Amino acid sequence: MMKAVIFDLDGVLVTTDNSHYLAWKQMADEEGIPFDREINERLRGVSRMESLEIILEKAVKPYTSEQKNELAQRKNGYYVQLIQQMGEEAILPGALDTIAQLKEKGIKMAIGSSSKNAPTILKQVGMDKVFDAVADGNQIKNSKPAPDVFLLAAELMNLPAEDCLVVEDADAGVEAAINAGMKVLAVGFAAGNQKAHLHADTLKDINLAEWIVKQQ
Ligand code: BG6
Ligand code: MG
After folding, report:
1. Which of 38, 66, 83 is the last residue of a domain?
2. Residue among 51, 84, 114 whose CB has most ligand 1 atoms within 8 A, to mutate
3. How many whole angstroms separate alpha carbon 154 and alpha carbon 171?
């Protein structure tokens, strides 16, 4: 029985996906590494270090692991500066209404994000008290498409995987949800992902609470 929703954060509830792009772009420009929005799409849902490896595919010189750590830290510094200026305006269309409707129906909610900055972001946008559980990049070893972060979110809510539906904007995240044995609503960039069970451009375009109640 469907009892809970696990939301990805970046690109599903908040616009931080663009801030990730801007921060990587600044670092890549400084290093003279070609990087654009098309390459950026491959970074959705992927951990910081794995994202860096994708960006470095276009680098003209090799980087030592120490240098790679510095690049990742530099990007994160730029990113943190951006998210520190962020407030409620960063919340994506339909996110607050969806959360309110789910709450009204007694459906549990969690975050399942690859980001180590998830707790900061939730605080910035005033969502730090909203969720029954937060599973993020600080608590897991294998990032999406591995199922770990979603399985942890379910465990923190004391629910089996099959009782949870994931909302994702990344193909890697859709894959992770399926690997976890969960249903998945694909939104935004992943809205066309045929492996997902449900599709919507934004959370505004679907009544998720109603859909879940119908499954019960
Ligand atoms: C995911 C983003 O949510 O978090 C990725 O979609 C990002 O783009 C990843 O690389 C890790 O984020 P952070 O904040 O730990 O660098
Ligand atoms: Mg995302």
Report:
1. 83
2. 114
3. 20
Ligand 1 pocket, residue 42 CB under 6 Å: no
Per the residue annotation, which of 10, 17, 136, 171 is the catalytic one? 10
Which residues, given as ranges, of the chain have pLDDT below 50?
Answer: none
Q: Of 83, 100, 130, at which residue does a domain stop?
A: 83
The secondary structure of residue 90, as a DSSP letter, is: G
- pLDDT given for residue 180 in this prediction: 98
pLDDT of 216 reads 87
CATH number at residue 109: 3.40.50.1000
User: What domain range includes position 104?
Assistant: 4-15+90-215
Q: Report pLDDT for 84.
A: 96
- Binding site membership of 144 for ligand 1 (Cβ less than 6 Å): no
User: For the residues of 113-152, what is the DSSP string, one character each?
Assistant: -S-TTHHHHHHHTT-TTT-SEEE-TTT-SSPTTSSHHHHH
Structure tokens at 22: 């801007």
